[in-house]
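User: Here's a chain of 66 residues. Predict its fold as tokens.
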Amino acid sequence: MTSNLKEEIIELIKKLPENAKIDDIMYHLYVKKKIISGIEDIEQSRVLPHEQVMENAKKRLEQWLK
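Assistant: Prediction complete.
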């Protein structure tokens, strides 16, 4: 994770247009949160190989199409 998340968030908001709405800010914060969570998952080895993801998706799709 970042060493100074607060500063990164402030910079993110500063880069938005002057007419940005609260929903715009919330969206960008949500995306930032998801990216940080994904990086943490990678660092903690909480990931699946691509092949396994594709196999799981194939099985689910086959079930849905029955």
